[in-house]
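Please, structure for the following, as tokens.
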Amino acid sequence: MSGSCVPAVITRRCAAKLNLSLAVLARRPDGFHAIESLFVPIELADTLTVRLGGSPGIRLTVRCEGPRASHLAGDVPTDSTNLVVRAAAAIAEEAGINPALDIELVKAIPSQAGLGGGSSNAAAMLLMAVEAWGLQWPRERLAVIAAKLGSDVPWFLEGVPAVVTGVGEQITPASALPSLFAVVVCPSTGLSTAAVYKACTPDPSRAGEAIRLAETLARGDLTAAMPLMHNALEPAARKLSGDIDRLLADLAAAGGLTPRLTGSGSACFTLCRTLPEARGIAARLMALEDAGSARWPAVFTVRVG
């Protein structure tokens, strides 16, 4: 440990993300996909608390928060398969530290939704671990570890609107976006990222659209931005889940402009210019029922960026 004055307890919010565009440009020989995507953070967030000390080891507890929490979080592992535990262990191994951490993760971000909850948790844990252990590591060193944990984790280290390319490791901050809101809706079932990518069809002609989308949004022209909001994974997600077609149709019927899948799904969203507009769309979606139960039990109204 390189510092003697370190905090005993650290708490950090782990924001979710939306992919305002997502092009899959090629399938690489290593099995990964080359992408180009405009990532933006949103208000929806998990909370991670790390307590330093106690008996040796990395112990993770998970609880769900909010009226939809038990429905949203799904089966989140607490063992070494969880990205939070893996992130803490990776820092400890590289620093030569025998870890003694108690970690609490409060979940509010739905799992298997394309919102990046697990990746956001992992990035937060990397930042919290170096702080807890007093390590003066540059962000570039953390980014190398982040890339080994998952394709989205490097972006979450910064968490600012950015065009992300390569397999997620190349990050170019975007121009400042105007004030925007979004309605984000999750079906009751999630989607496997690996399965969606396996079923997608790469299209290299989409290269450059994320940059043009970021520039168009920076000018405040939401109408002109809509045709550039494309997700190459949407056709594959629709084949794998019948909920996606119905959800996108319901979002449009509720007044959403060009609803889209985010990431590999299963969450979908629509952008809104104002908070009242977003709240109106959300209210119409929450009023939909099937056999007396809410059709879409997870509807969020969030600020974008």
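The mean pLDDT is 92. The radius of gyration is 19 Å.
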